[in-house]
Amino acid sequence: MTDPESPLFAALAHALVLRPDPPVRFVGDAYLDSAFAVSELAAASIAAAGAATSLLIEPLTDAPAPVVVDRTLACAWFGTAVSPVGWEPPSPWDALAGDYRTADGWIRLHTNAPRHRAAALAVLGVAPERASVADAVAAWHGGDLELAVVAAGGCAAVMRSARDWARHPHGAAVAREPLVHWTYSRVRPVADAAERDPQHPLAGLRVLDLTRVIAGPVATRFLAGLGAEVLRVDPPDWHEPALVADMTLGKRTARLDATTPDGREVLEQLIAGADVLVHGYRPGALEALVPAVRRRALRPGLIEVAIDAYGFSGPWRGRRGFDSLVQMSSGIAHSGMVGAGTDVPTPLPVQALDHATGYLAAAAAIAAVALYRTRGLPRRARVSLARTAALLLQHPAAAPHPLGEKRPVPYMQGPDPIDTPWGPAELLASPLTIGDTELAWARAPRDLGSDAPRW
Predict the structure, then answer these.
(1) What angle do CA 96, 102, 106 make, to 5 degrees?
(2) Pick from 29, 93, 359, 371: most CB atoms within 10 A?
(3) What is the pTM of this model?
(4) Chain-centre distance of CA 47, in angstroms?
(5) How many other CB atoms are there within 10 angstroms of residue 29's CB atom?
(6) Quick one: which H or E segment has residue 418?
(7) Can you give the pLDDT at residue 403?
């Protein structure tokens, strides 16, 4: 029986078209303090990925595999899964990134990528010093600055209330989108003589990972934990040193310039050899490289999962975005401020929109694999941070958890930490079990571009 106290899980299971009452049970304590049910979202999204996996392995076990989710570990996985031992990764934030007062409220500038940083500075016309940026921002009305930075190719978001977001044309468009947007195509099922192992239910599955930062890499990390062969491909100039240890667990990593003829040819070869494609391109961007009709011709039966920040409809469907920006736009940071009784934007205690959307994407991929194996119906799914935010906005916290309380979290048992290129690290224990199956990774984290772009 599903835990009746998890309406968030019920919403996710419904969006994934899972059975009405999948065998899911929650144990352990939640501890993330927020104006919203963020701890419950952590447990529910991981449970959704587990329930999809149970559906996948049911033909192998002749019965639904029970899913058990540890809330404490789920909350921890929404933070850092790979913890350095004796070394420190760099800060995930650029020195100029953050919230600034405008003439009429607050705005957040996201400057982690060099081109986004340059765009913001060009609009403001100041030196790259935080005090100078703050002085310049204070002279702008937030909406005008947001539009100017976005038009210059940067990333910014004004803090809006949930009510303002609901009235905004794009907020209204996102609210009308399904949590998971499915499309189907029918192809001839391919005979598959592979012997499936419930302990590694995705073994032999090739996953092409064209994602960056958090949501997409979380999805493909989960797939790798179930035995999939995941190849992450990044552009030549992309770096994310603060996240790479966490987000490359279990994967091979390569670099490729798909804007060149040679690079595009290699990308097409990778698509032709993939079973699942997970991509985080803004709407239209992947089409410019390899159109959907070409992708389906290269690999009939290809399962695709698309992840976007602001959704796939409405006036902002092509806007660049990140978790922290969507929290500002959607009213989450404003609600946190009101709930905390402060006068500054108050976001969620973790990048919960990224992580939850990542597990939802993983669940969609697994559910699609299950359907394809049984009925020859490859699915394509679209999910977004903004739509996940809309779900969370409907679920305020039932009761506050102690702010900042640290709970002991068990790490994977073993005589030694795992080895990474940066030093030893500890890895969190699996946050769920699916029958006798736990998440396990055959590869330690590695730097971006460590492998050749081939299967």
Answers:
(1) 75
(2) 359
(3) 0.96
(4) 15
(5) 12
(6) strand 418-420
(7) 44
Count CA within 13 A, CB hemisphere, residue 448.
22
Please name the residue ranges forming H helices in 211-331. Answer: 215-225, 244-247, 261-272, 285-289, 292-298, 323-330
Place of tokens 């060099």: 114
Which residues 6+ apart lie within 8 Å of 191 measured at CB? none
**For the segment 262-321, what is each residue's pLDDT rounded down to a tens digit?**
999 999 999 999 999 999 998 888 999 999 999 999 999 999 999 999 999 999 998 999
DSSP 122-187: HHHT--S-HHHHHHHHHTS-HHHHHHHHHHTT--EEE---HHHHHHSHHHHHHHHS-SSEEEE---
- Structure tokens that stand for 9 in this block: 């899980």
**56: enclosing H helix or E strand:** helix 38-61
- Over residues 225-272, the pLDDT tens digits come to 999 999 999 999 999 999 999 999 999 999 999 999 999 999 999 999
Distance in angstroms between the alpha carbons of the first and the last residue of the chain: 41
Contacts 24+ apart (CB under 8 A), 406-413: 407/29, 407/31, 407/72, 409/72, 409/73, 409/76, 410/73, 411/83
